[in-house]
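A sample follows:
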Amino acid sequence: MQNVLTVCPYCGSGCGVYLGVEDGVVTGSSPSLGHPIGQGKLCKRGWHAHEFVRSPNRLRQPMVRKGGRLAEVSWQEAISTVASGLGRGPEVAVLGSGRCTNEDNYLLMRLGRQALGTNNVDCVPRAVRAADLAALGRAFGAQATPASQLEIAQADVILVCGSETERENPKVVTSIMEALNAGAALIVISPRQGQLARLARVHLAARPGTEVALIAALADPRATAEAAQASGVSAEALRDAANLIKQAARPAAIYGGNASHQAGSSAIAEALAALVAGRGMILPLSRYANLQGACDMGLLPHFLTGYQPVADAAIRQKFASAWGGAPPAEPGLPFWRMAGTVKSAYLMGADPMVSSPDPAAAREFLEGLDFLVVQDIFPTEAAGLAQVVLPAASFAEKEGTFTSLDRRVQRVRKAVEPPGQARADWQILCEVAGALGVTFPYGSSPEIMDEIARLTPAYGAISYQRLDADWGMQWAMDGTGRAPQASPAEAPPVQPTPEYPFILSLDTAMGTWEANTMCRQPGTLQRECAILHADFRTAPPVEMHPDTMKELGARPMGQVRLVSAAGVMTAAIRPNPEVPKQVLLVPYYAREQARVVLGEPVTAAEDGAPMFAPRAVKVEMA
């Protein structure tokens, strides 16, 4: 058996994984014993990372829509159809993915800006992270953290906000436990009394939507009383947490999906960065192996690689000299603002109807396009709407790099050949560019990285030779951002009332990975991710404290109506003693069913996508 070292394709921690190969087939996954992040361990996703690679559902042949149906065609016909159908200019968009390599995403960005003449360039999963990533950009000069995951182990106080870390990025918990074993104190801000909350010195079981008020009280004791009243947390607990933060020499702030996937994520990120500024670190968690890299590679409407402004004439000239053609000067549109303007789109490894915060709006956008190209490894929902579908290689079938959530660039190595006629994304993009009249002169992924390094100061030291010499390397941040400053929440948090005594919120901890294409295919992960759907087929689950159930006279799995001023939804009860009595939680994947009671998504930051906010509700028996 051959063992090929690569990077786990799931969360942004970037654990090293060996793929076992026998007779040209990937047969297993195992951890790298010496890897600094994985440290000889993998989570359940990593242990099964090989399974989706050999799924019978993989795309194997290019397809073009004919007579209303997708039909298999040759690569030549598919590429020709793409080139003739896409159009040019601001009515075109290219959308990448946190699942594709840096090299793939870089070429997609170049395809859009040079060959198609558009700055409508984005990464679909970024929509749920746009506001908090922009906040990091203001604080640190790049939409990234200057910290390292490994630094958590040296922290003396760790604040975890809006995260069930053991489900989102399990290896981060390893560093947290190292710190706790060395005597560090843990503070958790979460309505749930989950695994980390039970280990915490102080658990601030706040009502959803009050996180910014709590963080403000940790920084300024004068805000304690107001924050306690708004959040439902005792003033004593707030003072205990504030004292721990004040006395800390090396504080660490970690935030996850329940913080970044809400309307107040920008204010949360800025408040946490300000809280630990000058003494400690802030670490945003990520559920995509290469979302950081996708942003680094310029899959942003306002920035080229390394967060270089596309509006800067000198920057554009630098890229024009390298490419033989300049990007447009006018910044493009973010994904969530493209509807009504963009007429054709090229999607690579992205399914907006699954990963965007507003799936209904994403479907309306895609259905309104005149021409859609989908390049992916599986037949996604978006592919069902496409005029052209191109089969791509998975992480196990190509060379490239991923950048972890803390800027560690690592090698992705080819273990097996792609199925059927599937090809590496960067190779497909080179052919598309050629059909559009632009030569992409790359013969390998290292050549693409060499160009990235030449054009991107942050990646200037990166090369495959250096990456192969160690466990990857972090790209350097120059610290040109302003000092982190807490900004107030843009709207007061929702409060329970006598008429609506509960706070309903979407929760990213339930069904954490159900939307990930690589977890939805036949195999162990598919079975585990399907459990919630199997148990709650007729109505989505709502997590409720058992005491609340007794007061309502309800039973487990029994259906109830959740009623707000906006509307009514039916849900099935899932008892959970971890949830506070005044809080009700519905899984994030059920956001479309929940919108009738939560109301329409709101934009709480200028640079953020519309997100669903918590809502005051009452419960009626169905």
